[in-house]
Structure formats: structure tokens, C-alpha cells
């Protein structure tokens, strides 16, 4: 039975989104901040399993509560304020520190729809913290609420990575459908104002890969020398999740290259259309040139203008202009067809 020994201040200022006591062979059950602190205060030999606390850093007092009530490595607190948000997993003493990037719960293919999740893992305590709701961690929380068993802290990370892989696979799948539609329109000559869509899509893919790409390499380094409390099965599962993650990143790279080629094709077609429009404008200007020159010459108020007194002078001038225009049009159309 858990003792409620924490002060009310600890409960109110924790910024706790959810808390679970996870036992190896039993369904997790929810705990609040006071119960979690009371359980952590017990000697390790009197307890089994681990506590998972998921915190909301957008609440101003959350970080202060973490410092006052949880003994986390200093590197965890420093990572909360580092400018670099690249995904990585590092070992600090007996703890594992993870900086992971994920998409927001309401992801809409915008570069700003990506945020960071910080995780600290020890043998008895897992702390995850974020500033904005994220899709993968929320799916894991829902699964645990429904009774999914977590064997260990590393098993929690493995489940989180697997969910993140599924989220990224769905993002890539949706992006491929969008690119397929754009490509079909391009081949059918019905493409209208689709360059912006491709640019935004490519920007999101590049940002996702840039933030997530370091993660597999960091995990492989960790797998070579894990902490002593990490079970061998957890290492195997973590390695498998890392390989799945690398495969998704490769698919993302291939999609980026495809988007780049489509952008180049669209740019080439737009340039061709612009060149044709400019050529037509030039031809029209050249065709009108004989009219302008002859009309300007005959319109001068000076003596000696030819054919001024001729009975058929007007039609003679029209015939001369028509011959010049027809000659210019012939050479222009010949070049157009070539």
C-alpha cells in the first residue's frame, strides 16, 4: 500500500500529466505525485517494478518541482535548455538520458508541428517531459491506461520507439499519396499551383530526418555497453527498434529525393511555358513592326511622300506591309515548329 506523505504543494506544482506504477507481471495502475514520491522513498529491496511520471513542462513550476523532489542527473536539467534538439540517447552514470523528437498530436505537415520529448530512465524511475502534446507518447499513455504491461524502463523506451516508427510510417505513407497525386496531375498537364505544396512537404521531411537521424547511431553506441540494470532481452528489443527506425529514415530519404526530382521537373516545365510565352510576345511585336514603321514614315508632314497623289496609293502601301508581315510570320512559325 502506498503512503501519501507528500505535501499538497508537491501535487499541485508537479505538472503531472500521468503517473503509473509498472510491475513486471501485473497491469500498471495510476499514481499521483504524492504516491509516486512515497513509493520512491521506500528501500529498493521492499519494492518491485518502476514508476513512470509524464510531466508537462509548459507549467512554470514543473521544472522546479523536478529539481526539488526527484534525484535526476544534472545532464537532464541541462538538456532542457540546450539549443540543440537532435535526437540522442546518452548514459549518465546508471541512468539513461534520451532527447527524442516527435510530431504534435494534431500534425498537419508543417515544420512547426515537431517538438521535443526529454526522458530520464533509471532502474526504479522513468521521467518523461514535454512542452506540447506529442502523438507517440500519448499513444503509449493510452495503451498503458488500457492495461499494457511494461516489463522495465527500457521496455517503455522500446514501446515508445515502436510507436514513433508507426507514426513516421504513417507520415511517409500520407506524403507518398500526396506526391502521387501531384505527379499524376503533372503527367496529365493539369498541375496548378502545386510547387508550394511540394516545397512545404520537402521541408517537413528534411526537418524530421535532421532531427531524428542521429538517434539510431546513438542507440547503437549505447547497445555496445548498456547499464548493468538493463536486461539482455531489453537490449535485443532496443536493437530491433533501432533497425526499424533506420529503415523508416531510409524511406524518408528516398521520398525527399523523389520530391526534389518532381520540383525540378515542374520548374523545367514552368520555364518552358515562360519561354514560349516570351517567344509569342516577341513574334507579335515583330509582326506589328512593319505597320509601325511605315505608318510613322507616311504620317510625317513633309513634302515628297511617295504615292500621296496616286489613285491606288493606299492599297499599294497595304500590300507592301502585308508582304513584310507575311515574310516575318513565315520565318517565326518555322522557328516555332523547330
Task: Draw up the topology in text.
Elements: H1 8-12, E1 16-22, E2 29-30, H2 33-41, E3 50-56, H3 62-69, H4 74-79, E4 88-92, E5 95-103, E6 114-121, E7 125-130, H5 135-145, H6 153-187, H7 195-212, H8 214-224, H9 232-298, H10 313-337
Helix pairs in contact: 5-6, 6-9, 7-9, 8-9, 9-10
Structural features, described:
It comes from Amantichitinum ursilacus. It is found in: Cell membrane. This is Zinc transport protein ZntB. Belongs to the CorA metal ion transporter (MIT) (TC 1.A.35) family. The structure is a single chain. It is built from ten helices and seven strands. The chain has 338 residues and is of the alpha+beta class. The protein has a domain of 55 residues. Strands 2-1-3-7-6-5-4 form a seven-stranded mixed β-sheet, sandwiched between helices. The longest helix is centred in the C-terminal third of the chain and has 67 residues. The chain is rod-shaped, with a radius of gyration of 35 Å. The N and C termini lie far apart (89 Å). The N terminus is likely disordered.
Amino acid at each position: 500500500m502506498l503512503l501519501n506523505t507528500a505535501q499538497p504543494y508537491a501535487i499541485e506544482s508537479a505538472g503531472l500529466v500521468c503517473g503509473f506504477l509498472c510491475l513486471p507481471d501485473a497491469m500498471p495502475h495510476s499514481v499521483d505525485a504524492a504516491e509516486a514520491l512515497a513509493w520512491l522513498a521506500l528501500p529498493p529491496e521492499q519494492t518491485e517494478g518502476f514508476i513512470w511520471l509524464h510531466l508537462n513542462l509548459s507549467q512554470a513550476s514543473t521544472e522546479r518541482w523536478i529539481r526539488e523532489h526527484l534525484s535526476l542527473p544534472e545532464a537532464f536539467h541541462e538538456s532542457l535548455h540546450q539549443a540543440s534538439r537532435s535526437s540522442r540517447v546518452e548514459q549518465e552514470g546508471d541512468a539513461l538520458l534520451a532527447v527524442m523528437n516527435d510530431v504534435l498530436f494534431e500534425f498537419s505537415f508543417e515544420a512547426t508541428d515537431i517538438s521535443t520529448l526529454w526522458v530520464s530512465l533509471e532502474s526504479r524511475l522513468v521521467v518523461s517531459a514535454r512542452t506540447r502534446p506529442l502523438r507517440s507518447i500519448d499513444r503509449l499513455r493510452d495503451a498503458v491506461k488500457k492495461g499494457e504491461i511494461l516489463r522495465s524502463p527500457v521496455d517503455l523506451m522500446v514501446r515508445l520507439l515502436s510507436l514513433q516508427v508507426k507514426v513516421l510510417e504513417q507520415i511517409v505513407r500520407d506524403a507518398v499519396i500526396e506526391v502521387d497525386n501531384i505527379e499524376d496531375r503533372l503527367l496529365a498537364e493539369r498541375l496548378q499551383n502545386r510547387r508550394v505544396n511540394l516545397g512545404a512537404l520537402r521541408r517537413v521531411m528534411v526537418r524530421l530526418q535532421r532531427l531524428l537521424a542521429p538517434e539510431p547511431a546513438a542507440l547503437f553506441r549505447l547497445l555496445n555497453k548498456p547499464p548493468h540494470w538493463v536486461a539482455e532481452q531489453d537490449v535485443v528489443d532496443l536493437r530491433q527498434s533501432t533497425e526499424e527506425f533506420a529503415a523508416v529514415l531510409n524511406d524518408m530519404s528516398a521520398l525527399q529525393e523523389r520530391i526534389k526530382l518532381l520540383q525540378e521537373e515542374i520548374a523545367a516545365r514552368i520555364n518552358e511555358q515562360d519561354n514560349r510565352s516570351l517567344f509569342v510576345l516577341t513574334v507579335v511585336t515583330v509582326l506589328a513592326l512593319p505597320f509601325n514603321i511605315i505608318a510613322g514614315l507616311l504620317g510625317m508632314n513633309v513634302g515628297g511622300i511617295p504615292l500621296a497623289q496616286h489613285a491606288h496609293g493606299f492599297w499599294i502601301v497595304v500590300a507592301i506591309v502585308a508582304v513584310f508581315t507575311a515574310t516575318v510570320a513565315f520565318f517565326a512559325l518555322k522557328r516555332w515548329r523547330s
